[in-house]
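JOB MANIFEST
job_type = single_chain_structure
chain_count = 1
residues = 176
[input]
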Amino acid sequence: IYDEAQRLISLVGDIIRLSRLEDPSVAVRMEPVSVYETAERVRQQLLPLAEKQQVDLRLSGGEGWIKGSPRIIEEIVYNLCENAVQYNRPRGVVEMVVLEENGQVCLTVRDTGIGVAPEELERIFERFYRVDKSHSKASGGTGLGLSIVKHAAAYHKATITLESTPGAGTTISVSF
């Protein structure tokens, strides 16, 4: 009962976050944000999960300053990295890279996990869609993480690119 209640609390929280991103009347304060510093905070938060999953969680690159909502940028980084860790394999790697190029800041999260089949790539940003249905309950996720990433990126006028090979891993980049 406790585990299911926690799952429902998490689901409600994700739905509220998604609703706020879609509501144009909700004002969000935009300020300078270091994507690298945000990624380092997320890395520290996810280290216990990464150690439990036997995944090496790495971060490299530059500061990557953008104008945005610190809380929303952190949600982007957290959701991408948490998925990369959870759907990885033992002794796998998750690499976060922050690069600045041609006036853009790009956050790339690359993993050595289960990957996504080509026919499912278009659907992974849909609400409640799960690539690995067998992992659904075990992972404790709500199926909203990547949908939140999609809407949070759109809120910041950022673009998302995705490459994946089943059995070899996934690379998702967000360019601000």
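[summary]
Helices lie at 2-22, 35-53, 70-86, 136-139, 145-155.
The two ends are 41 Å apart (CA to CA).
exit_status = 0
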